[in-house]
Design goal:
Strand content: 5-15%
Largest sheet: 3 strands, parallel
Radius of gyration: 16 Å
Distance between the termini: 32 Å
Order of helices and strands: HHEHEHHEH
Strand order of the largest sheet: 1-2-3
Structural class: mainly alpha
Helix content: 25-40%
Number of strands: 3
Mean pLDDT: 93
Shape: globular
Length: 188
């Protein structure tokens, strides 16, 4: 898991579906460095580089970009959106849309609870989240753990122009944090 190769079959099916509605669609799948080989900010830098590359392929027409990510990949996309909102050089380069599958909104949270229907384990997730953050103080940084961003104006600047679609399981470990974040985003 955590590799674009893991999602290859899904990506090819998605590309086929896109081809029925759009001319010459493309998918760029980022294969970022996983923990423990690297920690923050390596993955965010890789995500930013991937976004810059995608922009270069479409002459900076960012409205043609739909970001998509699952779990930690969705978290990196949220971090990317927050970073873009803080960077003047990206003022008119927000993506058009984002699809997030079970985003890991807050890397370490007491609201992350084990459930009978989710194979993810809260204590393991807290360990991995702490490893990614590298420093405990980073866990309160919105660019590391996007759920830490409670500034609705920042989220409004960060949101893709056509919106964000979020999907997650009702009983998953991340559920409470995702519900709280979605409610916050709706107010932005």
């Amino acid at each position: 898991m955590g590799s674009s190769y893991f999602y290859l079959e899904f990506l090819l099916a998605y590309l086929t579906l896109l081809g029925t509605h759009y001319t010459n669609p493309s998918i760029f799948a980022l294969d970022y460095t996983l923990v423990p080989e690297a920690s923050y900010p390596t993955q965010l830098h890789q995500t930013m580089a991937g976004y810059r590359y995608a922009l270069s392929l479409i002459s900076n027409n960012s409205l043609r970009i739909c970001l998509a990510g699952d779990s930690a990949g969705a978290t990196l996309l949220l971090s990317l959106l927050l970073q873009i909102a803080q960077s003047p050089e990206y003022d008119n380069l927000r993506p058009g849309f984002a699809t997030l599958i079970s985003p890991w909104v807050s890397l370490v949270s007491p609201k992350n609870r084990n459930t009978r229907s989710d194979y993810l384990d809260a204590s393991s997730l807290h360990l991995y989240g702490s490893q990614y953050a590298a420093l405990r103080s980073n866990l309160s940084s919105p660019q590391v753990s996007p759920g830490a961003c409670t500034d609705s104006k920042w989220w409004a600047r960060a949101a893709p122009s056509k919106g964000i679609f979020v999907i997650f399981g009702a009983e998953e470990v991340f559920g409470p944090e995702i519900r709280e974040w979605v409610a916050r985003l709706r107010k932005a």
